[in-house]
Amino acid sequence: GKAYVRDKVCQEFQALGKEDFRTLTIIANSRKFSNATFEEISHLVHEIVSLAETCCVEGADPSCYDAGSSALSAKSCGGGSPFPAHPGTAGCCAQEGLEQKLCLAALRHPPQQLPRYLQPSNEELCQAFKKDPKDFADRFLHEYASSYGQAPLPVLLGSTRTFLSMVSTCCISPAPTSCFLKEKLERKTLSLLTLLSNRVCSHFTAYGKEKVTFSYLTSLAQKMPGASFEDLFPLAEDAAEVFSQCCDSVAEDCMQKKLSEHTAKACGVLLARDERFADCCNGKNLMQSYFCILALPPAPAPKLPEAQKPTNEQLCGEEGARHAKRYLFELARRHTTVPDAFLGKLYDASEKVRVECCSAKDASACLDSKRQQMGEELPPFLEKANQLCGQYTKLNFLDFKKRLRESLMQTMPKASPELLGQLVEQRADFASTCCPPNSPPLYCAAKVKPWAPTAPCRAGGQPLR
After folding, report:
1. Contact call for residues 104 and 69 (beta carbons, < 8 A)
2. 282-285, long-range: CB within 8 Å, 24+ apart, which pairs?
3. Furthest-apart CA pair in the chain: how many Å?
């Protein structure tokens, strides 16, 4: 316990030096406490750096670090603590000694669902930088790391380092505009990698490996509905494996290296089958190819016969989870604009049904009753989602809102203009955030009512209205 934490902190401090250790501490704590203010993070960072500076020098008494960290815990537990607030603090402070320290160290805020960081203009950047370079750098690190806190630490470090280097170079350049243009082009891949790895790792943290595999599978199916389950499922498994290895990894280039390998596999399988994928895969840079594939909008749904439903034996057999995924995959390729948040609810409902019914006394009767409900409730659920996001994808935003208003006026002829306006804004907000690929998973899932067939086994939820 104690010695391990002390050694880890002191090794980092000695390997990095004070300034880089301080930078790492700002990033790590801004990721951890994504809702904290800059002032709260600054207090915490100051204390951690002072502790390392005092107790990690050669010849320091081994009890120095323990005494310092105990004082830090006491300050966290005292009234009016200047550190990030957390609802779990009181519970930790009821414990004592090492348990209390470990409990406080494990506290974190939930990650930001929608990144708040907005990059200022070049002029604003230089103005803030010239006024106080150190304060500018600290504030940037805090804002950026709390906004993209799900991106792996090495990706965040690389991205923030190149950004600050760009600002310090271009703000003193005789030609700042062309300098910023050149530097932004150079860090484009790293900048995109930060945004996208924040998104995919948010998905991984929210969904877990199995559901991420499903989410990636249906996303590919909607972009390329002509491809088979056998083609796409191994690619989805491969992507989920990359995220499981790299989202929490501190290895320097894990995400970039493994995603490049994954993209090479995906391009190998899909390049010859689809013109849009071929265009994405023709570039020399594999990371750019990956970004391109991820950004592809859904393809028009092909005319396919009705999806084959798995039998009760298949659902309750050893490969039950795979059969359920295959059926939902078939639904996704027939409804290519149903967003991830809706498909995720179907996945949760199907897993719940499988677990409940396959362990029931009469599994077949339980599954049959669910099936009947599903036959009635699933088509309108899918149709509503498909229609909403289909229109969002096809129309410009103003026309989309106009169409929303028209359809709401038909379904709610007695609604007041104020209520209609509110509903249009709500649905337009949902569509703009949750219809595009890689939408924020928890935010969007919270906006969709749970879907479950209401059957005798269980009184289920209602489909999204």
Report:
1. no
2. 285/189
3. 80
By CB atoms closer than 10 A (0-12, 13-18, 19+), residue 373 is middle
* Structural element, H or E, at residue 317: none
d(CA 452, CA 374): 8
Q: Name which of 251, 452, 273 is nearest 355 in CA terms.
A: 452
pTM score: 0.86
What is the per-residue pLDDT across 412-425, written as a single tens digit (0 to 9) for each? 988 898 999 999 99
Dist. CA 31–CA 20, nearest whole Å: 17
- Give the torsion sign (CA, 366, 369, 372, 377): negative
Query: Is residue 144 a contact partner of residue 157, using CB atoms and an 8 Å limit?
Result: no
Which residues contact residue 296 at a Cβ distance below 8 angstroms, ignoring those fewer than 6 apart? 223, 276, 277, 280, 437
Let me know: does 315 contact 367? Beta carbons within 8 Å: yes
Span 83-137, pLDDT tens digits: 998 989 999 999 988 888 889 888 988 888 888 888 899 999 999 999 999 999 9
Please tell me the distance from the alpha carbon of residue 69 to that of residue 75, in angstroms, as a whole number. Answer: 10
Phi/psi for 259 (5° steps) reads -65, -35
The two tokens of residue 445 are 């899932």
